[in-house]
């Protein structure tokens, strides 16, 4: 017979599961500098076995991120259903930061731009939704008139660095700093000084992300 897929052997499925769990644990704790060899060792399988499942570390990052795309997009869609524009956008920021607070590798993957296809797919699918949430909030007078979405991206980078520095000693510290940042971006923030530097363009954001 042709066209009938062979069932996946139990040991093959088991090893892949061990590698995925190992990668999730190590990436969350140490970030994307973890090697595929370290992932295999932590999983208790041979390096050759790891390479049979994933040809490179990028391949396992792709597999991990694929499982998260739906979760991130679900947050965006949930926030779109919130009636109050400010609450919708600020809820989005808190929820996304919360999802990444305990996952150093995911923070690095989202904040940078290193050619990971699934991360690029998430940005392509998510950016129009984020832009819509932001525009809606700004048009409702929630943010200072000079505030642009690129300012939010930079603020997100700042919060990611806070999590990198405090995820062991004070894992909820990012909430405090995000509160202060949002207070400064709100339309009623006082006293107010006009920024001396113009906002980054989204093209500049992409260029910077490629160097992080």
Automatic annotation (TrEMBL):
InterPro entries cross-referenced by the UniProt entry: Homeodomain-like_sf, HTH-type_TetR-like_transc_reg, HTH_TetR, Tet_transcr_reg_TetR-rel_C_sf, TetR_SbtR-like_C
GO molecular function, one term: transcription cis-regulatory region binding
Highest taxon in the source lineage: Bacteria
Domain HTH tetR-type: from-to ranges: 13-72
DNA-binding region, residue range(s): 35-54
PROSITE patterns referenced in this protein's UniProt entry, alphabetically: HTH_TETR_2
Transmembrane found in the keyword field: no
Pfam hit, one: TetR_C_43
Keywords per UniProt: DNA-binding, Transcription, Transcription regulation
Keyword Transcription regulation attached: yes
Name of this chain's protein: TetR/AcrR family transcriptional regulator
Source species: Trebonia kvetii
Lineage: Bacteria, Bacillati, Actinomycetota, Actinomycetes, Streptosporangiales
């Amino acid at each position: 017979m042709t066209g009938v897929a062979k069932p996946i052997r139990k040991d093959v499925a088991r090893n892949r599961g061990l590698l995925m769990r190992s990668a999730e644990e190590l990436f969350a704790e140490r970030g994307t500098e973890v090697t595929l060899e370290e992932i295999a060792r932590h999983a208790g399988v041979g390096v050759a076995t790891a390479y049979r499942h994933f040809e490179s570390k990028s391949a396992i990052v792709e597999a991990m991120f694929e499982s998260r795309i739906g979760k991130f997009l679900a947050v965006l869609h949930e926030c779109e259903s919130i009636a109050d524009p400010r609450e919708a956008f600020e809820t989005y920021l808190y929820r996304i930061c919360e999802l990444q607070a305990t996952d150093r590798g995911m923070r690095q993957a989202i904040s940078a731009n290193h050619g990971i296809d699934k991360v690029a797919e998430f940005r392509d699918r998510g950016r129009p939704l984020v832009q819509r949430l932001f525009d809606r909030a700004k048009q409702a007078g929630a943010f200072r008139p000079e505030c642009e979405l690129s300012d939010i991206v930079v603020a997100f980078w700042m919060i990611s660095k806070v999590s990198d520095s405090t995820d062991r000693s004070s894992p909820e510290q990012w909430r405090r700093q995000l509160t202060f940042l949002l207070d400064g971006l709100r339309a009623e923030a006082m006293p107010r000084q006009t920024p001396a530097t113009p906002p980054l363009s989204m093209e500049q954001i992409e260029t910077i992300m490629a160097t992080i």
